[in-house]
Amino acid sequence: MRNLDLSIIIVNYNTFKLTKETIDSCLAEPTHYTYEIFLVDNKSTDDSLEKLEDYFKDEISRGTVKVIANSSNGGFAKANNLAIEQAGGEYILLLNSDTLVKEATIDKCMDYMTKGTNADVGALGCKVSLEDGSLDKACKRSFPNPANAFYKLFNVKTSSGKDDYNLDDLDDDGVYEIDCLVGAFMLVRRTAIDDIGLLDDTFFMYGEDIDWCYRIKQAGWRIVYFGEAEIIHYKGASSEDKKTKKRNPKLIYEFYRAMYIFYRKHYTKKYNVFVNIAVYIGIAVLLVFNLIRNALRS
Predict the structure, then answer these.
(1) Comparing C-alpha atoms, which of 60, 84, 77 is closest to residue 8?
(2) Which residue in 69, 232, 278, 293 has a CA-CA distance of 20 to 30 Å to 106?
(3) How far apart are alpha carbons 66 and 78 in whole angstroms?
């Protein structure tokens, strides 16, 4: 039963401090919209869930914060889907556990989505700034394809427009229709979800946001970058060793596995066998290279 305006979904995995600060930033912002916050724990191996339940015990008792404790870690997409299925909001906000919501961000985004002239907007993302103040370029991008993915992955600049994966030419503070948002902040209309379905949980941690955006646009909905609202994203804070900058090898594997899944799902029939083979080889080479480079960090 949909009896609320907004359901905010935050997935925790061994990140008590980050998750606490993310939820605090949501609760600190006054809003005229009714909302609930789902805290989904992906079988944390530390005591972060217990500490979060204790810290937010008053909000939990009031029903503002609702906890889903998973018995296993099935990945980011699966965790979000569990909450979406239970959520009572007309809008769903996927929000990373390593983010801070800035002043009036939720109201500004909801005001835009609920405006009658924007009824065909299926998903909206805001400006996502990194800890150093620079833009997280993933918050406004084109869909990946063999050309722009090649230029991005190998850092090749061209004047042909084919290196348009990151839409750097668009004003960071503007409002534009784009292809793809980042899952760190993704406000989605419930009727769009009813139309296209849940996140594809074949993706474990990466790629599910790109796939969802692709399906939303394929179904005829618009996707909008809304640069008038902002969050801070402590990117990598939940997946890197702060001293060595080493990443969990599984996360590197899942990053390139997501590329493979997305390409196989949406592009194999669009390109000939030679392009497909080249793409798969390229993904494999990059996976091996980055696993080795990560292992050599000290």
Answers:
(1) 84
(2) 69
(3) 17
Give the 3-state DSSP-derived string for the chain, with helices as H, strands as E and coil as C. Answer: CCCEEEEEEEEECCCHHHHHHHHHHHHHCCCCCCEEEEEEECCCCCCHHHHHHHHCHHHHHHCCEEEEECCCCCCHHHHHHHHHHHCCEEEEEEECCCEEECCCHHHHHHHHHHCHHHCCEEEEEEEEEECCCCECHHHCECCCCHHHHHHHHCCCCCCCCCCCCECCCCCCCCEEECCECCCCEEEEEHHHHHHHCCCCCCCCCCCHHHHHHHHHHHCCCEEEEEEEEEEEECCCCCCECCCCCCECHHHHHHHHHHHHHHHHHHCCCCCCHHHHHHHHHHHHHHHHHHHHHHHCCC
pTM of the shown model: 0.92
pLDDT at 160 over 90: no
Closest to 178 measured CA to CA, from 209, 202, 149: 209
Question: Using CA atoms, how far apart are residues 10 and 24, in angstroms rounded to an integer?
Answer: 12
In angstroms, the CA 239 to CA 13 distance is 10
